[in-house]
Design the sequence.
């Protein structure tokens, strides 16, 4: 993976690109993460497909641009990124918040997609309770207390049974929060609060879709995930039985297998024939 900055329109975007592959997958990280969260996962894909990881504006070292980063504005930036890289079509894979961005991209630029993958993510808008929680997080960050977020959010993403085994990843995610610009956190929280209900769009867009869900996800409990999946019979689904919200770290091989089968149309066993 080669790291570089690309000018996506007027936005300087920090990306990494494996540079080869007939099909291309763009991996979009979640809230309080950066593109480095994919460092151990991307190698499981890059021999089969071209892989691009992105620091979403406001996180990592990509720029902050304004007080609110709407999901639609970030979709525009990603379209400009594809243009800059001369890539016509991709499969967009969004983890958590990255899924909200993938859905906005799907709504605006379906002609640029081979498919969309929601990895521990949802087409549902924020509930009022969730919006209130985000407003509380904005207040914490603005009062200089984002360390509270760092400690609670990083660990909560993992199924309890996996936390000791994956403590080094939790520590890395905590550190990622500390180095993320406060203005970027606030801008993305604002954008997530504003996002639309994408359920009807997803049902009607006609694109191939895959949900990858963790059975032990504390943010999207299994019963809620089951309801989401049931509302979208047009989509494929893969369940990660021993994962929380971070399935690509908790069960990376199973997650990669589901994703590659969706993108290439072949299982790993078929690839090896």
Sequence:
């Amino acid at each position: 993976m080669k790291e570089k900055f690309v000018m996506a329109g007027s936005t300087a975007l920090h990306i990494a690109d494996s540079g080869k592959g007939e099909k291309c997958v763009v991996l979009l990280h979640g809230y309080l993460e950066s593109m480095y969260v994919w460092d151990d996962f991307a190698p499981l894909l890059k021999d089969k497909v071209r892989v691009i990881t992105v620091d979403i504006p406001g996180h990592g070292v990509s720029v902050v641009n304004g007080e609110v980063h709407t999901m639609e504005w970030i979709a525009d930036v990603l379209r400009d990124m594809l243009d800059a890289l001369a890539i016509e079509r991709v499969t967009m894979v969004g983890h958590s918040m990255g899924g909200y961005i993938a859905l906005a991209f799907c709504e605006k630029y379906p002609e640029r997609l081979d498919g969309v993958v929601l990895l521990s993510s949802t087409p549902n808008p924020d509930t009022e309770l969730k919006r209130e929680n985000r407003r509380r997080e904005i207040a914490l960050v603005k009062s200089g207390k984002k360390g509270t977020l760092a400690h609670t959010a990083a660990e909560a993403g993992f199924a309890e049974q996996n936390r000791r085994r994956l403590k080094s990843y939790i520590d890395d995610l905590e550190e990622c929060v500390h180095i993320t610009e406060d203005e970027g956190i606030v801008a993305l929280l604002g954008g997530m609060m504003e996002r639309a209900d994408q359920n009807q769009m997803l049902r009607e867009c006609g694109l191939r879709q895959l949900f990858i869900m963790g059975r032990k996800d504390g943010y999207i409990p299994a019963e809620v995930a089951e309801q989401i999946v049931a509302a979208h019979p047009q989509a494929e689904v893969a369940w990660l039985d021993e994962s929380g919200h971070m399935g690509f770290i908790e069960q990376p091989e199973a997650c990669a297998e589901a994703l590659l089968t969706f993108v290439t149309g072949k299982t790993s066993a078929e690839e090896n024939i």
User: Anything to note?
Assistant: Residues 128-142 form the longest helix (15 residues).
